[in-house]
Write a structure and sequence with these properties.
With 436 residues, the chain is mainly alpha-helical. It folds into two domains: 1-201, Up-down Bundle (Growth Hormone, Chain: A), CATH 1.20.1250; 207-436, Up-down Bundle (Growth Hormone, Chain: A), CATH 1.20.1250. The chain has 17 helices and no strands. Helix 2 (16-45) packs antiparallel against helix 3 (51-78), helix 4 (81-105) runs antiparallel to helix 5 (110-138) and helix 6 (144-172) packs across helix 12. The two termini are 38 Å apart.
Length: 436
């Protein structure tokens, strides 16, 4: 554990509740990455689905983020997180176990795969909102950034290892045993959730779900620092997805790269993300939290803009593009660590679920739009020109946070005070009303 920052090592050693929930999140992340790669793989190789079918299997795992994030926020703020974490993990594990049983018996069909993918997507939304809303209830404010750095590192490793493990296990053991391994990961997350006994839901008046969702959205949007984070995250994800969509077409058609090479180049970005997540809290010992946050957004854009630049070099394009992707991953990790930390630190406890759900809705809701925009630009401009267009546009919007009051916050404590003192009358009313 020497690779971890001292604050992270202390956090793991001294906080039993955090250690348990982090281990559960690690298991859930690895299982999630394995599953997200495995289900489309089953559709292609075993069910011989066409491109539309494969897209449907991937999409139904993502659609619940848009449809159910706000409802998940209501549930998390009304019930103890232990209940949500365990229920979501059990539902996901059960869906995977049923798929394994069907495959072992008579073989899967496409309908069963789609239904299971939808259940897994729903469970993932509730688990992620519950996990991210629970951290600030377990930890003091000065430990949140270290915890999120560890979370981002775990995510980066899972992103690298999950798909590789899925391909290896399917090749060596077959589909049914691999599904069973994924189900076991969900079981591990459920056990972790069961051990979380001391965290209760905030006490607050009850109101209808629709009213709670509305008040949560009003609060989130009227709070300037949180609104700035939402906008930056949404714009960044839109450009990231558009760029990766165009890059796949460009690399295969214009650079004659194989799908494996493209996957390796893209995956190497996770190495940069791992480095960034482990360095994040160290950087704030010299620079302001707000400055590192803004720097991360800009570095992420610079990394992607380097890709079309190095493609003009001629030789070693794959190596240089991989380095550019590492710069992007490093910047994304810096932004994510502190964006999550700030959105957990700024709101009062009874609004954390609402802010988490609203943020995820905006941040992740732009991903399908980015894929569509990227594909359209590749067809309209040519893939090479589309890469430049998306990269330059991304660089421009990456400076959004430099105009935010968050830019001057040196610590999470300062950002928290900033958030509490820049509430508009609308946000103050939302704070006094029954919240989600």
């Amino acid at each position: 554990m020497a690779i971890f920052d001292k604050d992270i090592r202390i956090l793991i050693a001294d906080n039993k509740d955090f250690r348990n929930i982090w281990l559960g999140e690690t298991s859930a992340h690895f299982g999630g990455q394995l599953t997200s790669f495995l289900l489309p793989l089953i559709a292609v190789t075993y069910l011989h689905a066409d491109g539309t079918g494969v897209g449907l299997v991937s999409a139904v795992q993502f659609v619940p983020v848009v449809v159910l994030s706000l409802i998940a926020g209501v549930m998390v703020d009304r019930y103890p997180p232990r209940r949500t974490l365990v229920t979501a993990s059990v539902a996901q594990g059960a869906a995977l176990a049923v798929l394994a049983a069907f495959q072992a018996a008579d073989g899967l069909n496409f309908g069963q795969l789609v239904v299971a993918a939808a259940v897994i997507g729903v469970a993932t939304v509730f688990y992620e909102v519950a996990y991210q809303s629970t951290l600030p209830r377990l930890l003091p404010l000065n430990s949140i950034a270290a915890a999120n750095g560890l979370h981002q590192a775990t995510y980066s490793v899972s992103t690298l290892a999950g798909p590789a493990a899925a391909g290896f296990l399917v090749g060596q053991l077959g589909v049914s045993p691999t599904l069973t391994v994924a189900a076991a990961c969900s079981a591990g997350a459920a056990v972790s959730g069961l051990l979380l006994r001391g965290v209760k839901a905030p006490e607050q008046p009850r109101e209808s779900a629709l009213k709670a969702i509305g008040s949560g959205l009003r609060y989130t949007w009227s709070l300037r620092p949180i609104r700035d984070l939402c906008v930056q995250a949404g714009l960044s994800n839109l450009h990231e997805k558009a760029f990766l969509t165009v890059f796949l077409v460009f690399a295969v058609r214009d650079l004659d790269m194989s799908g494996t090479t493209v996957g390796v180049i893209t995956g190497i970005g996770s190495v940069g993300a791992l480095i960034g997540s482990l360095c994040a809290t160290r950087l704030t010992r010299r620079w302001a939290v707000g400055g590192v946050l803004a720097l991360g957004a800009v570095l992420a854009a610079v990394g992607l803009l380097l890709v079309p630049a190095v493609s003009q070099v001629g030789g070693y394009v794959a190596v240089l593009a991989s380095v550019a992707m590492m710069v992007n991953g490093f910047g994304v990790a810096l932004f994510n660590v502190f964006a999550v930390s700030l959105r957990q630190a700024i709101p009062p406890e009874h609004q954390i679920g609402a802010v988490t759900a609203s943020y995820r809705l905006v941040a992740l809701g732009t991903l399908p739009l980015g894929a569509v925009v990227g594909g359209a630009l590749a067809d309209a401009l040519s893939p090479g020109r589309a890469l430049w267009a998306v990269g330059i546009s991304y660089l421009v919007v990456s400076f959004w946070l430099t105009f935010s009051p968050l830019r001057g916050a040196r610590t999470l404590e300062e950002a928290q005070k900033l958030g509490r003192t820049t509430d508009t009358p609308e946000s103050q009313d939302a704070d006094r009303s029954p919240s989600v």
